[in-house]
Amino acid sequence: MPGGPTGNLVPTFPQSVETQKNLYRDVKSSNNTKEISNCLWYHFKLRREEAQAMVVNDGDFLLRQSLSSVDDYVLTLRWNATVLHFKINKFVQRHDAVNSSTFFVFERAYFDSIYSLIMYHMENQIPISVLTGALIQHPITRQTP
């Protein structure tokens, strides 16, 4: 297994309980990456240009599915007045012919779900990239019906 933290982290933010419920509703502690569809900061198949227009302030971020690479996810964020796009790297570790584990990472810390990866960086204010020092701080939520 790659080095670094693994597991599901529970979000704790200095926001009202109602705000937390709205931003992170229905998210359970499971390893299923489809959980991110319950997170309001996940915008599904949002075009790159639309995502760029939505992150206005430093620290604003959203997650979207890559339109150019099937099964890949991209974190779009604004940092130092620049919009950045980070592909979430996915690694599959084969244990044997039948069993495997999947891990997600930006640069250093590996997690068993995209949700855990995002929450780790946001909750602990760990830069997404050593080169840019970019932090994710303010989730940009999608419209809900």
UniProtKB/TrEMBL annotation:
Keyword flag Amino-acid biosynthesis: no
Ranges where the SH2 domain occurs: 41-140
Signal peptide: none
SUPFAM superfamilies in the cross-refs: SH2 domain
Keywords: SH2 domain
Alphabetical list of Gene3D superfamilies matching this protein: SH2 domain
This protein's name: Breast cancer anti-estrogen resistance protein 3-like
Organism: Ciona intestinalis
